[in-house]
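Convert to structure. Protein one:
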Amino acid sequence: MENTVRKVTVSRAVQVPDGNGGYTERPLNLIVGVEHTIWLDDLGSKVKRKISHIEETEKHLLVYLGDGAESQLWKKLPKNNDTIIEYTID
């Protein structure tokens, strides 16, 4: 039985201003089927794409975005102590 990745959380992935001149670290949540706004350099604009699937390798998680017809690799995340993986339960 093969596990299917449903969600990846990277703790302390995003730094946002805390209002006091410093920064607070926030997690990055990547969930299959959820739409993200990304910047496409070749188009010079922002577009919305859904995470089509997440593949797990021995040392990395590969996050793919899709527009329905095709998907492409978006992020390659290392597996480490800051990475939490959730699987689909059938």
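Protein two, convert as well:
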Amino acid sequence: MLTDIIPATQRAKVYIVFAVIAAGFGTVQVVYLTTSTPQPMWLTVALALIAYVGTSMGALAKANVPMQDPQAAPVSPSTTVQGGVTTFDPGDGSPTTTTLS
């Protein structure tokens, strides 16, 4: 993993700074587009660099995401009856259903 390149606390700060800078350049581009003013070359270059650097940052972030345990126990369905209302939870993340008993 790439965890030794940048410690987690510093990575979080880098991601925040990058997001603020990207949002700033995006806002400037929106201003140029909505005012029908020609976009300057420096903004075009800056947006291209943001996209290029963002790919590297995304790869670093992905490399530092903990792997999920593939052997996680499945959740079984459950039915609850309370006060004349029956609630069924399929246990697979889909919505529960509620009926009157």
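Residues 11 and 65 are 12 Å apart (CA to CA). The chain has a mean pLDDT of 80.
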